[in-house]
Amino acid sequence: FPVFYANTVLLNVSNLPFRLQKLKEMFISKFGSAPKFYARAPGRVNLIGEHIDYCGYAVLPMAIEQDILIAVGPVQTQVVQLANTNPSYLDFSTSVNNIQINKTKPQWHNYFLCGLKGIQEHFGLNNPTGMNCLLDGTIPPSSGLSSSSALVCCAGLVTLRANGKTLSKVELAEICTKSERYIGTEGGGMDQSISFLAEEGTAKLIEFSPLRATDVRLPSGATFVIANSCVEMNKAATSHYNIRVMECRLATKLLSKSKGLEWRKMLRLHDVQTKLGVSLAEMLTIVEEVLHPEPYSTEEICKCLGISLEELHSQILSQNMQDVSTFKLYQRAKHVYSEAARVLEFQKICSEAPANALQLLGELMKQSHISCREMYECSCPELDRLVDICLQFGAIGSRLTGAGWGGCTVSMVPTDKLNTFLKNVKKSYYQMDGQRLAVENNSLFATKPGRGALVFVEA
């Protein structure tokens, strides 16, 4: 990958898109001078491959048009002042030498501070540049479209530029993945990777260790449609997400121990497959043989691993998992290995483009949603209803996307049926509910693969 600023875009002031021009005017009004540059990071929709990136497996997202946009003016003082075009997000300022990230209250500015701190620590910046920043976001918050990660990525990019540093896209993605964990979310890296590595017109197969992205050309004849359930879920504010991460880690330990591997060193379900040198189908068989469907108590886990309860709590369970007493290991491992296989099959179908490609891809999306609902238990009644409505009105495939427990669905719809589909889903899901009616204009939209993060400077 080229040095990142090879992708800097020069814009003539007179041709600035309306949104950038409006942001510039608001910045001048707020801070008394014009911004020196702008940075943009897109949200994403994951087409298939849910909750498997942090287990080491490949995922298949694409960037969307909705994004985080930040206007930036570096300043002489070592202070960062943050403001938002949305008045419901309060202004915030802090010293760049004293970054405090509050995990207990994941407010919007804390995500900016994650990206800021990640770049500072990577370069060991002793006297980082202060900044005035005005942020504008078009990604619906807590919708599963990666608004939080896009903000972390955009903040990392802003800090990089303001301090005159350069990194490759891959390096930026890896730093922003690690730095988002400052807020307490044990994510795997999909969101940050697609935000930086996306290219217009193509989805990406994102693989990890090492991080790499491969173009996936989506079949013609279908359009992907995002529908927001209007149930908000902030994964940093609840324990659902981190419990699933821990259940996968514990399943890794038990599977490793049963096969005579060095289980203490094994962290991800992918590691078990790699060490054993077997296929995903064989891993599913091993899960059936080794793990039982009933929940595991902490005492049973200790017995299986031959360790004390104290060692489990101090060496394996993270700080925010100390009060959890039961874990579902069989279901989580079964979902991860089957979902990882679906991702590879999805990519294969896109590559080979058989005559019935759309039907095959649609079937994989349906299977993915069933597994998310039943094995990973990350759906909710509203998401299930929305998936059913989308399939009823012509979607070839539909599934939850993002962490789940709320947020959005993604559906694959024949392009010639798109308008009818949108009209029927709008009527059935949004207009039947007064609360949803207020937000439906931003809740249902067709999308196509967008471009990754960029820096804009005025020519």
TrEMBL record:
Reactions that this protein is recorded to catalyse: N-acetyl-alpha-D-galactosamine + ATP = N-acetyl-alpha-D-galactosamine 1-phosphate + ADP + H(+)
Domain GHMP kinase C-terminal as annotated: residue spans: 355-430
GO terms of biological process kind: galactose metabolic process
Source organism superkingdom: Eukaryota
A GO CC annotation given for this chain: cytosol
Pfam families: GalKase_gal_bdg, GHMP_kinases_C, GHMP_kinases_N
GO molecular function terms listed in the Swiss-Prot or TrEMBL record: ATP binding; galactokinase activity; N-acetylgalactosamine kinase activity
ATP-binding in keyword set: yes
Boundaries of every Galactokinase N-terminal domain copy: 26-74
Domain GHMP kinase N-terminal: 110-197
Alphabetically ordered keywords of this record: ATP-binding, Kinase, Nucleotide-binding, Transferase
Known EC number: 2.7.1.157
Keyword check for Kinase: yes
Subunit structure: Monomer.
PANTHER family, per the entry: GALACTOKINASE-RELATED (PTHR10457:SF7), MEVALONATE KINASE/GALACTOKINASE (PTHR10457)
Record NCBIfam families: gal_kin
Similarity comment text for this entry: Belongs to the GHMP kinase family. GalK subfamily.
Descriptive protein name: N-acetylgalactosamine kinase
Gene: Galk2
